[in-house]
Amino acid sequence: MPAKAGIQWTKKIPACAGMTEQFRDNLECAYARTRLSHHVRHARESGHLAAAREKTGFESSCTQASPWAGSSSTATKEATIIPPTPSGFERSAVAGSTLEDLDGAALEAFVRKRAPSFAERLGVERVATTLGLLTVVGGHAVPTTAGLLLFGELPQLARPEWGLVALRFSGSRISDEVAERLELEGPLAKLLEGAMSFVKGNSHCASANTPEELNTSEYPLEAIREALINALIHRDYRLTGRVALRIFDHRLEIWSPGGAIAPMDLQQAMNRGGTSFARNPILVATARGLGLVEQIGRGLPLIGRLVAESSGRQPNLRSSNSDFLLQLPSRLGPLPTTGPGN
Asked: Which of 57, 99, 301, 336 could be joined to 273 by an S-S link, Cβ 3.0–4.6 Å?
């Protein structure tokens, strides 16, 4: 297929205040991916996909660097034209936010613990910028996405979709009456704390067969905590949906925007673990320093083991390009035959 005149495969993104060179490179690559996807679809319809690849030379510059490249899965191949989260996104400024929106004492304590000698020599603000928690816009330090999420007093003032909604349904379907609803806001640690309190207040204690089982929760709380922190840390913060905690009569669901960032067999990941792909590496690293996560690839196996020990059943997982859902069965009843979210 002859090269189409006038096609602009790349676009130089002008630099602006607060934009790192790598973030600009990511924007340019995302633009190229978007342009390519349109012409690849046209080439497929015309039966000239190979010619299109040869003419663009795109695979050699961008696609080979993709974690999805080389897979034989149809769904995985389609995922290669969907740009991943730019590595500079977490370091980008949040419009309208200032240092006054942060818990300054908590941020300083973390920086001094994380890099004490550097904080003493260079100053807390400089080190926080290096860590991706602050950035400089117009000569002034301001919070980044990661910094506001972890140390912001109320990040949802700037980005309301960064909250969490907790729901208790009177039944087994999402169309059933909502018995209780809680809108949670605050930094990630506060969202986690509020969600765990909601679970404890809206689940039951299982009947005790032995003295050791007294006050046993309907759901294994350690598994729920692991699932919630995974949803909050690994969600796609570019999407406008909120993390949702949904409790039904015989199951609990945790839904988050953004699917798995690399193709994987979810059942295998549940059984074996050992892999840890971070969509938000700065969030993960900082949360690890705060003691919220381990990042050793055992989250799903831990959830699977705890749920199996509690209910005798395995969790259900579903991942797509746009969302991730984890469904935990109650130890007080059978897993419903309807699908997740029904």
From this structure: 301
